[in-house]
Amino acid sequence: MVNYSYLVNKKSRFQQWVSACITVMLLMVTFFIPSSYALFVSPPKDPMPFIQALFPDATAISDKTPTEIGGYPIWTVRKNDEVLGYAFETNDIARIPAYSGEPVNMLVAIDQQGTYLTAQVLEHHEPIILAGIPESKLWAFTDQYAGLSVRDRLKVGGNNSENYVAIDGLSGATVTVMVMNVGITKAAKKVALALAIIKKSSGIIQPISTIKTELFEPANWTQLTGDGSIRKLFLSREAVDNSFFGTAAEHVDEADSDEKQDMFAEIYFTLIDIPTIGKNLFSASDYQWLTANLKPGEHLIGVFGNGYSFKGSGYVRGGIFDRIQVHQKDNAISFRDLQHERVTDIFIAGAPRFKEMSVFRIEAHHEFDPGAEWAFELLVRRQTGPVDSLFNSFRGQYDMLDKYVDTPPAIIPPPELTLTQQVWQERNTEVILLIGLMVVLLLILFFQDVLVRHPKFMHNLRHGFLVVTVVLIGWSWGGQLSIVNVFTFLQALMNDFSWDLFLLDPIIFILWCAAAVTMLLWGRAVYCGWLCPFGALQELVNVFGRFIKLPQIELPYAVHERLWAIKYLILLALFGVSLESLAVAEQLAEIEPFKTTFLLKFDREWPFVAWASLLILSSLFNRKTFCRYLCPLGAALSVPSKLSLFQWLKRRSECGQPCKTCAKECEIQAIQPNGEINMRECHYCLDCQVTYFNEEKCPPLKKLARKKRKINDEQIIAITNTE
């Protein structure tokens, strides 16, 4: 039962008496009209039972919550963690006035792919009972949306075309279902865009034009129709008959053969609020009267016709014009009596006489653009039964003349960024800083012979660089390379290679490029010694251990040399597994503590934390234990080290035999007993180069210095004796 108590609140006695009469009348209608027919006001229905019936497997239905984009209130329906769909009311998103002047509120549900699951009428104010139409037909109309997509361009009536999907209309309620269609599709597209189910078009955006209100030129009917200011839609009887060919209305009201070329309808249409058009068509006072109450964004359409009535034979005061519409882009604009003014005469010279003349107001919520093209549509209906009928529509195009409007320049949005471009843009600062670090490292390498002559500065510079590597590249940016990256690259080469796979992480991509370049030029030493965050962390921990005088454990060279093989065996094992399953190889690659240390920052299960901690703490007593003996990434990078182009680490003939100073000082034992540097194990710390140029530490230099001093002393003695 409808609650009508609101009609009697705070009213005068007369108003109360009138309200009581209306209440009694409505109650009588409620009791005596068959339930299959709609009332003037359909009571609002609770949407929740519809949602529950639509999703019987749902485990949770959220409260109505605004979307992050657009703020559209929607229900999200889930089955455990899976989203089954989204539901919303059209009145919350797209309120489109229907026949009664009030919108039809509908519940719409779509799934994650943008497919309509249902459309249900929750509330309407449409007096379709007057046409003898069961309300059940309204439900049948909305049932057609199930299975369609929000990407489809839907139209009511007609046949399917390349750009549209046709759905069946409802005889006697054409305008109602057309408005319902716009409400459903507009609301669904807004929600789908907000939820990123569909993408917003990135085409050119054309701001709305404004009419040049100060521009007026005197003109007659011939001039205005000749330049296109006033357009005409002409239909012959043959054209109308042909449009119903093959339908149930094919022979209804069909013209005789000698009448085929006769005029069926001749309709002129134009935009009245353009001064040159409106002021020439009407008298000054009439034009002022028509445009005086126009609100911002509202416009006037003038329609003048002969033949088939554009008003409709069933049109009455308070009704709706169900034979005409104005279309612009995706907007379908219908007119009710409140937007209509009947015209009795026009004053322009040369105009023909018209049976019907009207001015229609386009309201601001339609966002009509006077400078953009629009179309006038005439619906021609043929009766196929006492209630049933068919209709076809005919359109006339209107292209606005540039001289009448000011059209802002089109806004051309930048092309939509790909996911890769978005990621690089978001990490722009990090990319610039990392490239800056690469430049600093290159300068260190190029000027290493100068820098190593200043041992204290060189050591401080290196330790500072390692701190930046750990803090920025490692913990802040997550830029730790892994053996998994190598396997992924190899898998991509063997399958469909795509750079996008690697470009999605700018920091990792830049580090791999740096590793590849430095490996080609100087071997794996540069990356492992300067750019690897875990290697840098181990070295800094060892520096701290030496600073606090912790004992250092150095294995005999013979043992150390054999332990090198472990990392190569690990590499081969992981590579073999990766050929069968990259996922399993990634799990086994947890021997690398990189993910635990830098990506998850020790926030994971205790065995992983214990393993990473053990490796880090071991560096207090032995420099870079993991790097030297266990790291599969280091093993992979060392394989092509023999191909390096430059050997900038200088050696002397005395190195190894008899001098072993550098070999003893090399804290990762990369210098072999014969004095040769093993570039597969070197980390390019440059400590050996500091010694190489230090006359106080390098024995060959010290010996050479003694010889120079002896020669100088002998020369001084010889000069003294001569005097």
Question: How is this fold's topology laid out?
Answer:
Elements: H1 13-32, H2 47-54, E1 60-61, E2 65-66, E3 73-79, E4 82-89, E5 105-110, E6 116-123, H3 135-142, E7 154-156, E8 165-167, H4 174-194, E9 210-211, H5 221-226, E10 231-236, H6 237-243, E11 263-271, H7 275-281, H8 284-291, E12 299-307, E13 320-328, E14 331-336, E15 340-342, E16 356-362, E17 374-383, E18 389-398, E19 405-406, H9 419-426, H10 428-446, H11 448-451, H12 455-476, H13 483-494, H14 500-503, H15 506-522, H16 525-531, H17 533-547, H18 557-580, H19 582-588, H20 594-599, H21 606-618, H22 625-629, H23 632-638, H24 661-665, H25 687-692, H26 699-722
Parallel strand pairs: 7-8
Antiparallel strand pairs: 1-3, 2-3, 3-4, 4-5, 5-6, 9-19, 10-11, 11-12, 12-16, 13-14, 13-17, 15-16, 17-18
Describe this structure in words.
The protein is an alpha+beta fold. It is elongated. It starts with 12 loop residues before the first helix and ends with a helix. A hairpin with a 5-residue loop joins strand 17 and strand 18. Helix 18 (557-580) runs antiparallel to helix 19 (582-588) and helix 18 packs across helix 23. The protein is 40% helix and 15% strand.
- Mean pLDDT, rounded to whole units? 84
Task: Say how many strands there are.
Answer: 19
Largest sheet: 6 strands, antiparallel
Relative strand content: 15-25%
- Kindly provide the radius of gyration, computed on alpha-carbon positions and rounded to a whole number of angstroms: 42 Å
